[in-house]
């Protein structure tokens, strides 16, 4: 222990240079040495047994051993031989804080940045070699290779691009927010042939490597520099080293980046993780990106010359006869493990959006659909659009409309739907999580490739950028235009390849048109699957509301077939001359709506009504309210008027009815109390005695049903939902209503009999259910119906009859047991001999 201070003082100068080790690691090294008896034994155990000279020699040996261990620990962190130290122009600690906390929220981004930089370098040399082919030299293949070393815990990215000179390494990698790409683009703009764009326009992308690495080494060889140089820096250091590469010229041309990974970043040594990341970010990069796979196989062990000579001598001196059986048995060779390396190209999918659309076949588009959909949607693409957007923002894109509903959308949970578009910059994936489409168009799949976007910014920052908002606006417009073209396609021609039916004499049976199955427009087939999303768009996207309404299709009272739908424009075009509103009827099913009492007046006047059977229709009507200036009118609510009658006659008639039935309406309002908001004489009922409608600004019966079905409704106990009080509309021409008017006392004070009250309540129950509302009090309803049945059946009392006491039945004898005859064998039974 007395020598520890001396040892620590000796090592202080080393820690001030390139050596970095923790105190815990150093103490662990001392403890290891102590366990071997190098230090602790000297000072504690054998001090009394050794002379001073022996103790001094032992102490010197212990110090030397400690220095050797520390030297071994520090060796991987030492700078390259012959290199010079340079200070960063910007404070690295502050820069790393920006990179980690502001620019990047996902450590995987480092690989995207390095692949992007390599792609830039390859594009540069490819562009320059067009006019100067000799620049390719002995390295004509433009490619990237990625290698991992689990033992050394390193990850290497190598390219055969333009490379960097020593000055380039100092300037480009020593300054934050400075990039050789920026200078390259500046030079191109000053020239006449500026027809190439680069993606690494910001210099901070390279420093994302420090998210996962403790030390980064960059070796590079440029055609203008005879020497291959290496740049190296430690994570957190304020300086870096640049000098000749001790290995010599191993690259020929290009750049090799080696990351010495942190302990918490060893997941990037997994070939499965790397393959997934490379495929994710560089799936469509122009140049090949290959990953070196490490495999261990068993091979026969090779014999050296000594073993072969010994075996030959043994065979020559062996006179023992060997039998044929022994000769047949060959001795199994001794096996050994051999590690092999094999490169596998990851980016094999073509980026067809960069090609001219006239040269792409439908089959190629469908194959690319399978790539972008990633199995999220079954079937082929219904349609697609391939376009180049030019203007303030330039980008290329392919948008696909699926033919089948994506699996995540089938559950109806919009939160589970992932964005369907991938954003690229020069074929390098930026993110597949951008909301480039509004949620109602999340089923749209495709790619967007823009040269005007910064590469190395995080998703949250880019999401709010003006550029992305402009791109999103153009994409929505293109998507809606694509769907509009689908809706305007002509009906497909009859399939003439169908086999014709023939009779017994071989004559072709000509089918009547009535027997033929009606053809369905492809858009109707698609709309039945995705119509809900378009209706949601009318609610969410007010800017495109008019465009979306033209894409909607509805069932109506004049569309009988299962696949017959009508557009809003078609409805408006065939409205009655006196009709001023679009009549809609929300409900659960077409059958229920078509048989409702609300439809009587419309059927009598031959007025078309749109049936709204989707749950979202109530929200759609409540938000949109009109189409091309024509308002929607819910026929289950008050205020429905028909202008086909003489207005003066209608007013006189209504006044007479109101006066005549005033005693009945007053009595019923008093009887029902809060169960109805008011009792009125109906102007629209046909054959029904009464019906309960909703107030103009209240919830309809269908909306009430939807709200009561909300599984996540707070503050309302099951069965205690506040049911709306509707308007009881009476049909003044119906016998039930006329008879009920005659049954109530004229003075308005005498209490009517119970049968009159029951009839009045039953009338309300009937009207409530006809209006689509549930019965308010099922228990009271059952009691009333019991009294009606009692009177109708002539039952005097509801006392139950005495329970019967049937006599006991005699015990029957048991069935005799069936025994197989002696000598019978089931195997002798041949079922083929039986006459079935």
Overview of this protein structure:
The chain is an alpha+beta fold and 836 residues long. 36% of the residues lie in helices and 15% in strands. The protein has a nine-stranded mixed β-sheet with strand order 1-6-5-4-7-3-2-8-9, covered by helices on one side. A hairpin with a 2-residue loop joins strand 12 (421-425) and strand 13. Helix 16 (522-540) packs across helix 21 (617-624) and helix 26 (754-770) packs across helix 27.
Task: Tell me briefly what this model is.
With 836 residues, the chain is of the alpha+beta class. The protein is elongated.
**Strands of the largest sheet, in order across it?**
1-6-5-4-7-3-2-8-9
Number of strands: 22
Tell me what portion of residues adopts beta-strand conformation. 15-25%
Unreliable segments of 5+ consecutive residues: 1-48, 193-202
Percent helix = 25-40%
Main sheet overview: 9 strands, mixed
Dominant shape: elongated
What is the mean pLDDT? Answer: 78
Structural class: alpha+beta
Cα Rg: 44 Å
Number of helices: 27
Spatial separation of the terminal alpha carbons: 103 Å
How is the secondary structure organized here?
Elements: H1 4-15, H2 23-35, H3 40-45, H4 52-74, E1 84-87, H5 92-103, H6 109-129, E2 144-149, E3 154-159, H7 166-173, H8 180-190, E4 213-221, E5 229-234, E6 239-244, E7 254-261, H9 271-281, E8 289-300, H10 305-316, H11 324-328, E9 335-345, H12 362-373, E10 381-389, E11 395-402, H13 407-410, E12 421-425, E13 428-431, E14 445-450, H14 459-463, H15 466-487, H16 522-540, H17 545-549, E15 555-556, H18 568-573, E16 582-586, H19 590-594, H20 600-604, E17 610-612, H21 617-624, E18 626-627, E19 630-634, H22 647-660, H23 662-672, E20 678-681, E21 690-693, H24 701-708, E22 727-730, H25 735-743, H26 754-770, H27 778-793
Parallel strand pairs: 2-8, 12-14, 16-17, 16-19, 20-22
Antiparallel strand pairs: 1-6, 2-3, 3-7, 4-5, 4-7, 5-6, 8-9, 10-11, 11-14, 12-13, 15-17, 18-19, 21-22
């Amino acid at each position: 222990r007395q020598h520890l201070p001396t040892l620590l003082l000796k090592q202080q100068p080393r820690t001030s240079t390139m050596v970095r080790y923790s105190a815990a690691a150093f103490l662990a090294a001392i403890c290891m040495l102590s366990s071997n008896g190098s230090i602790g034994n000297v000072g504690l155990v054998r001090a009394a047994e050794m002379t001073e000279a022996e103790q001094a020699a032992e102490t010197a040996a212990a110090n030397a051993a400690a220095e050797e261990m520390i030297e071994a620990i520090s060796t991987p962190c030492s700078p390259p031989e012959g290199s010079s130290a340079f200070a960063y122009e910007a404070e690295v600690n502050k820069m790393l804080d920006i990179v980690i906390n502001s620019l990047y929220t996902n450590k995987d981004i480092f690989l995207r940045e390095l692949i992007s930089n390599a792609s830039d370098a390859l594009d540069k040399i490819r562009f320059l070699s067009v006019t100067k082919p000799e620049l390719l030299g002995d390295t004509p293949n433009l490619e990237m290779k990625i290698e991992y070393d689990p033992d050394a815990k390193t990850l290497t990215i190598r390219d055969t691009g333009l490379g960097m000179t020593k000055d380039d390494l100092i300037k480009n990698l020593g300054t934050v927010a400075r990039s050789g790409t920026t200078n390259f683009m500046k030079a191109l703009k000053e020239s006449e042939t500026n027809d190439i764009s680069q993606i690494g326009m910001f210099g901070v992308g390279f420093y994302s490597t420090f998210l996962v690495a403790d030390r980064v080494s960059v070796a590079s060889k440029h055609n203008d520099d005879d020497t291959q140089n290496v740049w190296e820096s430690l994570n957190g250091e304020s300086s870096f080293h640049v000098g000749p590469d001790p290995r010599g010229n191993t690259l020929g041309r290009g750049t090799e980046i080696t990351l010495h990974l942190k302990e918490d970043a060893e997941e990037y040594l997994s070939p499965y993780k790397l393959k997934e990341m490379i495929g994710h970010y560089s799936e469509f990069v122009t140049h090949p990106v290959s990953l070196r796979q490490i495999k261990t196989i068993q091979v026969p062990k090779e014999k050296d010359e000594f073993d072969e000579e010994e075996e030959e001598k043994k065979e020559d001196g062996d006179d023992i006869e060997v039998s044929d059986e022994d000769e047949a048995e060959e001795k199994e060779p001794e096996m050994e493990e051999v590690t092999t390396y094999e490169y596998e190209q990851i980016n094999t999918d073509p980026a067809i959006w960069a090609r001219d659309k006239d040269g792409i076949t439908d089959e190629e588009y469908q194959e690319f659909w399978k790539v972008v959909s990633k199995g999220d949607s079954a079937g082929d693409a219904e349609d697609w659009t391939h376009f180049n957007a030019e203007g303030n923002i330039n980008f290329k894109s392919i948008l696909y409309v699926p033919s089948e509903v994506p699996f995540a959308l089938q559950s109806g949970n919009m939160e589970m739907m992932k964005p369907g578009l991938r954003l690229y910059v020069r074929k390098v994936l930026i993110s597949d999580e951008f909301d480039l489409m509004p949620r109602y168009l999340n089923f749209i799949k495709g790619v967007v490739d823009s040269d005007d976007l910064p590469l190395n910014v995080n998703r949250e920052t880019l999401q709010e950028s003006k550029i992305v908002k402009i791109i999103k606006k153009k994409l929505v417009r293109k998507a809606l235009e694509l769907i509009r073209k689908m809706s305007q396609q002509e009906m497909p021609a009859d399939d003439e390849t169908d086999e014709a039916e023939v009779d017994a004499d071989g004559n072709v049976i000509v089918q009547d048109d009535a027997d033929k199955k009606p053809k369905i427009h492809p858009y109707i087939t698609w709309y039945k699957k995705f119509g809900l999303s378009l209706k949601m768009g009318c609610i969410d996207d007010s800017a495109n509301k008019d465009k979306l309404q033209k894409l909607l299709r509805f069932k109506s009272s004049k569309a009988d077939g299962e696949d017959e739908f009508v557009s809003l424009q078609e409805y408006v075009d065939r409205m009655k001359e006196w009709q001023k509103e679009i009549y809609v009827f929300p409900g659960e099913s077409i059958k229920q709506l078509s048989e409702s009492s609300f439809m009587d007046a419309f059927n009598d006047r031959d007025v078309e009504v749109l049936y709204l059977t989707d749950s979202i229709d109530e929200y759609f009507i409540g938000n949109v309210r009109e189409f091309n200036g024509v308002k929607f009118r819910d026929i289950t609510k008050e205020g429905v008027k028909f202008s086909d009658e003489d207005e003066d006659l209608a007013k006189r008639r209504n006044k007479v009815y109101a006066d005549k039935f005033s005693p009945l309406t007053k009595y019923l309002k008093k009887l029902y109390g809060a169960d109805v908001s008011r009792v009125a004489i109906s102007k629209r009922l046909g054959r029904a005695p009464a019906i309960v409608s909703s107030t103009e600004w209240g919830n309809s019966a269908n909306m009430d049903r939807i709200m009561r079905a909300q599984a996540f409704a707070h503050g309302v106990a099951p069965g205690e939902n506040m049911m709306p009080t509707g308007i009881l509309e009476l049909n003044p021409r119906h016998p039930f209503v006329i008879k009920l008017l005659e049954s109530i006392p004229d003075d308005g004070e005498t209490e009517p009999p119970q049968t009159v009250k029951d009839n009045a309540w039953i009338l309300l129950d009937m009207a409530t259910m006809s209006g689509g509302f549930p019965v308010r009090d099922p228990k009271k309803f059952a009691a009333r119906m019991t009294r009606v049945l009692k009177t109708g059946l002539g039952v005097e009392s509801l006392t139950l009859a005495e329970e019967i006491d049937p006599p006991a039945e005699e015990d029957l004898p048991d069935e005799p047991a069936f025994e197989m005859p002696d000598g019978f064998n089931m195997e002798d039974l041949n079922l083929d001999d039986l006459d079935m």
